[in-house]
């Protein structure tokens, strides 16, 4: 409940709409509760005395109350919808903003599918709790109190029936809510599982088709879909038990009131109109009990969703800018001072251990190593995507933890191992590097990345649509566009994480030449091919998270057996620049 109350603080400007909606429900309920009094007078006075004018007069009063109740009900719907959906939009916005602040270590705690569910399904549940629950939440207590009061005022002896029925209804509601409350959390977890399978299947649809694994994916989907179905059935099987229990109690109360009320009429102790009006209050009181039970069920499900949403909002970003953060990066020098790192605090081994490395500003450094040697992990510490577990990482002579995060990351351009493009045009994607870049600057970056070769052939050029995730270009073209995007950023440090693996050797040589012409920029190149780094000022070989050797191409070729083995295996039958040996 504490988490739900906290989320209510996001109502903001919609708090007024919610208050007006509650007030309109209150007014509507009063109008409806007055109608049975008019009806009793109409029967006992107008009908019994055959007074047509009195009947019309009371009928008009009842009609006016009904119309006013209708109008206030319609106005309530308008204000409640504004409050509910405005509140939901603000919660989604707050969640999305919080996710943008997360470090990679925070994102490791939440699956992407779960975050999607928390921003969509869980927020929808909260909206429904307001949109569908505000009316009965306000209406039910008012109807219950006024209905009981008017019932005892009309006939206290008949009203004693409520004293018997109320505990039965309360016990039923308690048992249902107690059973269903933990089941709603499992239901939302099942939705997470379904979204996860759908997301993976659609993301990897080309691999699914290439390996003819459609039937397997259908089986996986059927499994999670069945799990969601069965969880929903179990949950709502118990959730709807309140309906037959309440109906049984309500009709039992009606039968008892007719039985005792009929006897009182025969004894001239009760009039027909009074019994008719009393029955109206009985139905209203019972309906109020029913609505209260529905509110409890809505609130129970909303509390489960509120807990999941609050987990995102309460997650503390692992990386933040310090107080008095440094706002400028002096140069592109990088220093690793006895750096060790592990992804989880309870991990047995370090991914990186005892790394000492100095990279001068403007140097070109190549990093080689086998799969799992922590090459990517090493460079991710530079823009502070993760923090070193031990030791210090410095950029421009300062500890990266002293910089403003935005300033530090703006000074580092990184082309990721997994190339990421977004839906939209080529221009829109490249302007991620510089949102104010003009066409001349964009084409200059494209020429350096050798992306101009295929862009000039594409219909629309820079305005060509890349499709969702860049599906309209090949892997090598994606890499070149990502390189151009990083170059547009004009950073002090450029990191290429195996970012030319899908590019042919001739094109890679052109890109390498263009990069060499960049002055004052520190370039760190992770590669699998020796030809990609052999001209670097420094080549670092990583093995099992440690620096095995470092030196120039000629130094390593003369002294390091691992480098010699890599070089020999990759250049056998070819020349140093990757072209075929003509001997």
What do these coordinates show?
By secondary structure, the protein is α/β, with parallel strands linked by helices. It folds into 3 domains: 313 residues, ABC transporter type 1, transmembrane domain (ABC transporter transmembrane region fold, Up-down Bundle), CATH 1.20.1560; 171 residues, 3-Layer(aba) Sandwich (Rossmann fold), CATH 3.40.50; 72 residues, P-loop containing nucleotide triphosphate hydrolases (Rossmann fold, 3-Layer(aba) Sandwich). Helix content is 62%, strand content 10%. It is built from 20 helices and 10 strands. The strands form 2 sheets. It has a 6-stranded mixed sheet with strand order 6-7-8-3-9-10. It has a 4-stranded antiparallel sheet with strand order 2-1-4-5, with no helix packed on it. The termini are far apart.
